[in-house]
Amino acid sequence: MISVQVPSNCPDYRVHLALVLKSGNLASFDPQVIEFLDTFSKTVLLDEVTRQLPEMAVVAHWARKAHTLQLQAAFDEMRGDRLWVARGVALHFAPANVDSIFLYSWFLSMLAGNGNIVRLSQNRKEQVEVLLRALNLLLQQERFKVIQERSLILSYEHNEEVTQTLSESSHLRVLWGGDESVRRLRRVPMNPLASEVVFPDRFSLAALNAAKVLALNQDQLEELAGRFCNDAYWFDQMACSSPRLAVWTGDPASCCSAQDVFWAEVGQELANRGLKYPEVIGVNKLVSAYAAAGKGFADAIRPGITGPISRIHLADHANAEFRQIECGGGLFFETEIPDLSQLASLLRDRDQTLSYFGFERGDLLSLVHCLPTRAIDRIVPIGAALNFSAVWDGYNLLQAFTREIDLQ
Amino acid sequence: MRAEIAKEVSGHNPYAELPRAKASRFLEEMNALTASHAERCCAYRRILDAAFGGSVSFKRLSEHPALPVRLFKELELCSVPSDKVIKTLTSSGTSGQRPSRIYLDQETAIAQAHALARIVRSFVGDDRLPLMILDHPDVLKDRKSFSARAAGILGFSQFGVDQVYALQSGTLEPDWNLIEGFLLKHRGKRILLFGFTFILWQHFLRAAEDSGRSLDFSNSILVHGGGWKKMEASKVSTEEFKRRLRSCLGIQAIHNYYGMVEQAGSIYMECEEGYFHAADYSEVLIRNPRTLDATDAGKSGLIETMSTIPHSYPGHHLLTEDLGVVYGADGCCCGRRGTFFRVLGRLSAAELRGCSDTYKVPS
Questions:
Q1: Are the C-beta atoms of A170 and A117 separated by less than 8 Å?
Q2: Alpha-carbon distance A119 to A160, whole Å?
Q3: Mean pLDDT to the nearest integer, B260-272
Q4: Which of B44, B77, B352 to mutate to test the interface with A (most CBs of A within 10 A)?
Q5: Which is higher by pLDDT, B152 or A20?
Q6: Could you tell me the sign of the dihedral formed by the alpha carbons of B217, B220, B221, B222, in that order?
Q7: 3-class DSSP assignment, residue B122
Q8: Which of A174, A185, B144, B305 has a Cα-to-Cα distance from A114 of 20 to 30 A?
């Protein structure tokens, strides 16, 4: 069963697909696209319901004109005199877990000048429906006709035939989702001319310099704890860039004291925010912690495992598999190393965001030079882990969504 | 020591032990099981090391470590070599989840059957009664890997003679001719009825009500179990369930039991007063779901169940996701000793899914 979400008056997706395919590219950062995104932003921020949703408020903030013009300036600076044009029609598969991702993916591709097809999950929350209604109302306006002709948002149960039709029609395929969906979708061939950008499951971690944490005064410590809470708890620790491992650097005694003060402050911050998970989350954490211990990933489970901060000490010989324990709600593996240069050996291909506190740029640069094969795509200060950036998972998205014409 | 314990609990009534005597015996048995599983099950040993500093001996039952029931879905927990496993019990995993796998060796399987017999006989008597299973025979098809339902049916078969299945395979509709024939044949005799709560509600009681047939089960004793989870969705209370069983089928003696495949055998039978009782094989504790602190009698919380039966897997102390209240260790009006309690329902499930807005931390 195929349901077309945008445009709302389309009875058959193939009819609108044909229109998207023949409408042609726009210039990058077309003023009509910038205007559309700005109007979308205002709609979300003025709506009583949508503006209450932090996630939507962040997208709306991202889509406002002041920000897209900044993106344009950065884009222009990066391409210089080179000719970067749209790739054609982009096909996006949105993830089921993070609703706002389809907007970023679609908007950036639109800014790059592409036509877009977005496949949404069948399993959508009410807030997405609200958003789709708003988008449909906007796209009915005559001034956004160029966008309407170049956008098709639909949803269907897994159906290889439809995925194949859409994949054959597109010039770019963007896959967001878990490893399983990425594997499944990748089995469907694309148009030979098409390229692909893939965002599978990732793992993220935080590195903290114990001595620097111990040197903080109370205000600074509170600020650090607050930033860490944003990274870890805003999306219940289920965002791919939320830290699930805390690596401490320093001698064992400093690490131990730094952990005590840091986690106590995080606990205080969570209490101030009134964080209270449903009781079953505590049981989930107990199951995850015991499973980690039973499989040999953990050598110590701290008391209070069912509370908001659940700390599990990584066993010395834990292999990369501990990353598969996806519990959420504030379950942290922890380990200590003498200094940042030892971090590289702990990292794996799956690792995406390293958020840090207390390291110099030089230390981080040295780390970058000894990273294993595919590990780490983002290194950001603690507090910035969740900020969506046009550079994601190693791709500069605007660059990946365009192609370069060689004019000699 | 084991033989001594066995002798102590082998009396006829499994609800006779005085609370103080039971408390010390039970703690001793739990500690012995913990030490033994820690030696034989590597995953269990690692959990004790990580969460309990490697300790295998505890001063109070409330300090004794419980494994969350769901852990049996995540880990292979077995304390005997695989060639000693004679039977594997599985729990129904909800969609996307692996089922629990419980490994039984000869000793544990016998101990389960023995415990079940002593407990159930204390309710239905020592004579084998004509048995009607309120289910269909195909549940038992796979003899190596047992569902909780199959294990229950098989366990209860030992208390009956002339066993029949009331439901037809495939359609799950009652076989009225067979049922009426069975009642006629055993008229005047006591009959044992056994079934899974939801199945008997959905496919037997409601079908009987709809059929308008007059069926006289007034001389029978019904034992049912399997949980109230599915019943909650159909909005039937225990009282209504019993009332309708009485008014439609005339069944007077109705005993629910609380049990789980992870601790098969040492079930908790519901007494005439409507309380589940711990027999001398088992004990329950209630914990605050947030802190896991043991709570006082009369306060609701997560039910922890203990059993002296599991020898082939470390399932002697489990934290369930059921909510309940303990009312006391002795003094139930039914006359039985043993901690008596009620089950209130299940801890509601919740899913964290990234940008979930349900339990959002305000930024």
A1: yes
A2: 13
A3: 93
A4: B352
A5: A20
A6: negative
A7: helix
A8: A185
Q: Note the pLDDT tens digit of each residue in B49-93.
A: 999 999 999 999 999 999 999 999 999 999 999 999 999 988 765
pLDDT in tens, B117-130: 999 999 999 899 99
From chain A, the residues in CB contact with B292 under 8 A are 282, 286, 306
The residues spanned by each domain of chain B are 35-346
Q: Taking CB atoms and an 8 Å limit, are A293 and B359 in contact across chains?
A: no
Q: For residue range B153-175, list pLDDT tens digits in order.
A: 888 898 999 999 999 988 889 99
- Tell me which chain A residues have a C-beta less than 8 angstroms from the C-beta of B289: 279-280, 282-283, 306
Inter-chain residue contact B68 with A127, CB threshold 8 Å:
no
Residues listed for chain A = 408
Residue-wise pLDDT tens digits, B270-320 = 999 999 999 999 999 999 999 999 999 999 999 999 999 999 999 999 999
User: Residue A233 is nearest to which of B47, B354, B361, comparing CB atoms?
Assistant: B361
Interface confidence, given as ipTM, is 0.89
Taking CB atoms and an 8 Å cutoff, what residues of chain A touch B70?
283, 287
Convert A148-212 into a string of H (helix), E (strand) and C (coil).
Answer: HCCEEEEEECCCHHHHHHHHHHCCEEEEECCHHHHHHHHCCCCCCCCEEEEECCCEEEEEEEHHH
CA–CA separation, B73 vs B77, rounded Å? Answer: 9
Q: Which residues contact B50 (CB under 8 A, 6 or more apart)?
A: A289, A293, A298, A299, A300, A301, A312, A313
Q: How far is CA B129 from CA B184, B185, B195, in A?
A: 15, 13, 15
A236 touches B: beta carbon within 8 Å:
yes
Write down the pLDDT at residue A130: 86
Sort out which chain A residues have CB atoms less than 8 A from B353's CB and list them. Answer: 96-97, 236, 238
Tokens of A88: 């054609």
Given CATH 3.90.190.20, say whether it is the number of domain A2-201+393-405: no
Q: Is A187 exposed, middle or buried (0-12, 13-18, 19+ CB in 10 A)?
A: exposed
Selecting from A55, A234, A328 the residue whose C-beta is nearest the C-beta of B361 gives: A234
Query: Residues spanned by CATH 3.40.605.10 within chain A?
Result: 2-201+393-405
The model's pTM: 0.86
Check CB contact of A58 with chain B, cutoff 8 Å: no
Of A55, A282, A295, the CB nearest to B355: A55
How many CB pairs (< 8 A) connect A and B?
Answer: 127
- State the pLDDT confidence band at B97, using cuts at 50, 70 and 90: low
CB-based contacts of B29, cutoff 8 Å, min separation 6: B5, B308
Give the residue-averaged pLDDT of A345-363: 96
CB-based contact, A280 to chain B, within 8 Å: yes
Instruction: Kindly state the average pLDDT of the residues A6-28.
Output: 92
pLDDT of B99 over the 90 cut: no
Scan residues 259-318 of B and list those with Cβ closer than 8 Å to A: 289-292, 302
Backbone angles phi, psi at A179, to 5 degrees: -55, -40
The highest-level CATH class for domain A203-381 is alpha beta
Q: What's the rounded mean pLDDT across residues B315-331?
A: 94
Say what the pLDDT of residue B358 is: 28
Q: Does domain B35-346 have CATH number 2.60.120.680?
A: no
In this complex, which of A53, A97, A293 lies closest to B51 when CB atoms are compared?
A: A293
